[in-house]
Design brief:
The chain has 2 domains: about 90 residues, Tyrosine recombinase, N-terminal domain (DNA polymerase, domain 1), CATH 1.10.150; about 120 residues, Orthogonal Bundle (hpI Integrase, Chain A), CATH 1.10.443. Helix content is about 55%, strand content about 5%. The chain is built from 15 helices and 4 strands. Helix 2 packs across helix 5 and helix 7 packs across helix 11.
């Protein structure tokens, strides 16, 4: 990326951090997408016109539609910023490619499969194995409360407190939300805490820091394998999907589910209505006022 573009991108990211409260991960993603786009724009991003951006559709033809959409979105926001801050007089982003996206349905485990994971991990934890107690606490928080992987690994040591049946989390965009903690999860965390040094600031410590998301992914796959579930079918996010789908199947309100998951947009939560469409059809047939009337 040329020096002039680098300075503009730095100013743009400073704005996202200060005004939009973007997280470090979000800022890194924007920086990466803009850097990749700059490689394909002749003359640099700052000076690019509509004709220069119009060539990106062909240059990005071999990329996944989701990648093209993400890079185009980053560029649109970047150019809006340049115009708003009087760094450009025009916005050329109308020439960017607009791929059609179909949101894939999330992978979901059945309730029986999740229960098999709890049995496999629980048997080891009951025997007093410290790492099994840790894994059980992780599983309870991922499936029992629907936490994101980044939220679980970064939990402070005192996050789950006696007599406090919820967590206050700072999720995406530094937005706070309340997350209920079941008595099972609280008990699992309490058992694991006996193995956590009092000096550790983290609930799931690893050296001087907390465990990484990559390590959490590995642990979840190992737990699945112990339960006879193909590891390639599962991840921490799949457990979050299972939490949402099984709650909806049990009759949870979509707005409540939105709050529990920390979704800014209800449209993101509505993906689970497609996953559990059979239950929704049954709900209409059983609960609608006209369900008992003949034609």
């Amino acid at each position: 990326m040329i020096e002039a573009d680098q300075a503009l991108v730095d100013r743009f990211l400073d704005m996202l951090a200060a005004e939009a409260g973007a997280s470090p991960n979000t800022l890194a993603a924007y920086r990466n997408d803009l850097a990749k786009a700059a490689e394909d724009v002749r003359g640099g991003l700052g000076e690019a016109d509509r004709d220069a951006l119009a060539t990106l559709g062909q240059k990005w033809a071999g990329l996944a539609a989701s990648t093209v959409a993400r890079r185009s979105s980053a560029l649109r926001r970047f150019y809006r910023f340049l115009v708003d801050d009087d760094l450009r007089n025009d916005d050329p982003s109308g020439a960017l490619p607009k791929p059609k996206l179909q949101r894939p349905l999330p992978k979901v485990l059945s309730e029986a499969e999740v229960e098999a994971m709890f049995v496999a991990v629980g048997d080891k934890a009951a025997s007093g194995q410290p790492l099994a107690q840790r894994n059980l606490a992780l599983l309870e928080l991922l499936y029992g409360s629907g936490l994101r992987a980044s939220e679980v690994v970064s939990l402070p040591r005192a996050a789950v407190r006696e007599g406090q049946p919820f967590l206050i989390l700072s999720g995406k965009g530094s937005k706070e939300r309340l997350v209920p903690i079941s008595s099972r999860a609280a008990a699992a965390v309490r058992d694991w805490l006996q193995n956590v040094p009092a000096s550790s600031p983290w609930l799931f410590a690893s050296g001087k820091k907390h465990i990484t998301r990559v390590r959490l992914y590995q642990l979840v796959r190992a737990m699945a394998a112990d339960a006879g579930i193909p590891p390639d079918r599962i991840s921490p996010h799949v457990l979050r999907h299972a939490f949402a789908t099984h709650l909806l199947s049990g009759g949870a309100d979509l707005r409540v589910l939105q709050a529990l998951l920390g979704h800014a947009d209800i449209a993101t939560t509505q993906i689970y209505t497609h996953v559990d469409s059979a239950r929704l059809v049954q709900l209409v047939n059983e609960r609608h006022p006209l369900a008992d009337r003949g034609r």
